[in-house]
Amino acid sequence: MLLRRLKLLAWLIAIVLVVFGGSYLFAPQWLMRANFAREAMAAHLETHSVQAGDTRWVYYEGGDGPSIVLLHGFDDRKEVWLEVAKRLTPHFHLIIPDLPGWGASSRVAGASYDIDSQAARLQAFVQALRLQHFVLVGHSMGGAIAGVYAAEHPQHVAELALVDAFGLQYKENAFAREALAGKDPFLFTNRAGFARAAAWVLAKPPDLPGRFVDVLVARNVKNHAFIKRVFQELRQPSQYLALQTRLGKLDMPVLGLWCHDDKVIDRSALDSLRNGLTHASAISSSIISGCNHMPMLEKPAETAQILTGFALSH
Fold first, then answer.
1. 48-313 CATH pick, 3.40.50.1820, 3.30.420.40, 3.40.50.720, 3.90.76.10
2. What confidence tens digit (pLDDT) does each residue in 181-221 have?
3. What is the pTM of this model?
4. Strands 157-163 and 134-139
């Protein structure tokens, strides 16, 4: 009997290994989706969708407490917040969308996806979900969208947190020089290109299996035309200064959260933020060491702790 059970267990293990190995080789995207689903479940998040304006929004929602809306950055998606979300849902009700045109949310051919257009779409999303008063958090491009939205719709935004946010003046760096010259560092066609793009935003190279990197490369190649078009839109002065020109309109508490070694948006943007907030009811700033442009990935515990303290302090 024991021998029979051991043989059955061995067969089951062999089947699992074959299925896992086959999926990794021939359908690694399935494994990635399964892992995201596992992480979302661990964070007590469920996936929903809603039609709002011209967009079918796909978003995570879960947790109990005051509402926080988390916006991702350029060429990113809602999953980037999962590690932070796991630490926030015990205290907050989270809504984490794929921004229009990105991730699983829909895209309208030929439409603009610049900061102002996305802020207008965000208002349609807020109305569709009947959100009244919430903490709004935005990273990078999502930070500019969050800031512009808060300036135009302050009645909805209780507090605003800007994480390594785009749209502010900062000391010119190598990334800015490339961007202003029209070179998009976030376009790639192979694993080496992915590594170069990752080096712009992460302090340490990501430890991803090769076939998972292949999925990200294929996704980037598929979206090349859209990425190029939005990148060109964001190169316009009205867009890369979209938040800077509206800082005086922000009257709610504002947090600026930056990585110390951000290669994309230099931390000198924090000075521009603080100096421009002439009417904010409270101004907070935090700098995290040991990360580059993606604190939610590289320092999720510290990021969640700072966001929690800010959200509960007002």
1. 3.40.50.1820
2. 889 999 999 999 999 999 999 999 888 899 999 999 999 99
3. 0.91
4. parallel
